[in-house]
Design brief:
The chain is mostly helical. It is built from 8 helices and no strands. Helix content is about 65%, strand content about 0%. Helix 1 runs antiparallel to helix 2, helix 2 packs antiparallel against helix 3 and helix 5 packs antiparallel against helix 6.
């Protein structure tokens, strides 16, 4: 009996949403429905590892912590790579099941609309405004540095030249 995809998809959604209690319940349901084969054992171990790595936020080496859930192209490429491992005859059944779980995860994540948590969002407008401001001397805040003054002056001159050409 193959792994029920509806349960697996629900599991991935719960793990990404960091709803670990519900994810553990889904994982237990999956375990009960799986037959005792090496492939299923590898698949289950990958699912369990995903839960543990998502739960632990301090592990900077885990794949899940480095994964950009909003980058659909990267997720698609990871899925292709995991599928290559599942087709590789050098891997055993356990490994093929393990990589199949990761390929399924990447497929599900690529189809999901994942919102970036508020803590990870950057405020680009403020950074842009700060980048456009003139750098001032530390001792006298009213004085701009020569380098920034010349950059600003050259940019203004280029704009004036474009206006005159029109």
């Amino acid at each position: 009996m193959p792994v029920p995809q509806a349960l697996v998809t629900r599991y991935f959604q719960l793990v990404v949403a960091r709803q670990f209690t519900e994810a553990e319940r889904e994982l237990e349901k999956l375990k009960q429905k799986m037959q005792k084969t090496e492939w299923n054992r590898g698949y289950f171990r990958a699912l369990y590892g995903m839960l543990l790595s998502r739960r632990t936020t301090t592990d900077s080496y885990s794949f899940f912590s480095k994964l950009d859930l909003t980058d659909k192209l990267a997720l698609h490429n990871y899925r292709r790579e995991f599928l290559d491992h599942t087709r590789n005859g050098l891997h055993g059944d356990f490994d093929r099941g393990f990589f199949s779980a990761w390929a399924d995860c990447m497929r599900t994540l690529a189809r999901m609309e994942v919102e970036v948590p508020q803590s990870q969002k950057t405020e680009a407008p403020i950074e842009v405004v700060e980048a456009e401001q003139l750098e001032t001397l530390k001792t006298d805040k009213s004085q701009a540095t020569i380098a920034n003054f010349l950059k600003k002056k050259n940019a203004d001159d280029n704009v004036e030249e474009e206006i005159e050409e029109e």
